[in-house]
Amino acid sequence: MNNAGLAGDLLNKVEANVNKGENYVKISKNFEEAAKGIGGLAGIAAGAYGIFDGVQAIRRGDNLSGGFSITAGSLGVLAGTASAAEGTLGLLGANLPRFLPALAGTAGVLGFLGAGVAVLGALIPGLVKEGQQQAQQDSFGTVLGEAIERYGIDGVKDGTIADIPTKDWPGGETWTS
């Protein structure tokens, strides 16, 4: 062990603690609580960004995506706050055996709900846009068909496509209708 910079008595105490392993449970518990707090702060920051992103989407006119982003961001902030509070109380040594598990459960449920809303927010706007695109294509097909018939450029002399006998269609002789 490199003992440069540690006084003799302090070095002996550190070596005794390491060799006996007396404080490893307390240190690991503090590390766990600190990680919960840091994770909670990261959750708060990510949730706040989700809210900001949702507001920007609404300003661009995308109300559906914006609403989902704001909802998911809000749940993320709440989950992060619960996780950070749990970590802080654990670091401070608060001995609330009934309260801390409930707080952990609340953070987990809020995080799960936030993730679910985020997934829905990623899927539903795309499906809505696809439906709108399909409606536009259907409308265009109708308008195009009417224009082709009106100007007589549908390839059928003095009539419509419906006037072409089945036998004249390519492969028409094999049709049964």
What do you see in this structure?
This protein has 177 residues and is an all-alpha fold. The protein has one domain. Helices cover 73% and strands 0% of the residues. The protein has four helices and no strands. Helix 3 runs antiparallel to helix 4. The protein starts with 7 loop residues before the first helix and ends in a 27-residue tail after the last helix. 18% of the residues are buried. The mean pLDDT is 77.
Quick recap of the structure?
With 177 residues, this protein is mainly alpha-helical. Helix content is 73%, strand content 0%.
List keywords for this structure.
177 residues; 4 helices; 73% helix; rod-shaped
Structural class: mainly alpha
- Which word captures the global form? rod-shaped
Give the % helix.
over 70%
Count of helical stretches: 4
* Helix-strand pattern: HHHH
- What is the average of the pLDDT values? 77
Largest sheet: none
Tally the beta strands. Answer: 0
| Uncertain residue ranges | none
Strand residue content: under 5%
**Euclidean distance between termini CA atoms:** 92 Å
How many structural domains does the protein architecture include? 1
> What is the alpha-carbon Rg in Å?
33 Å
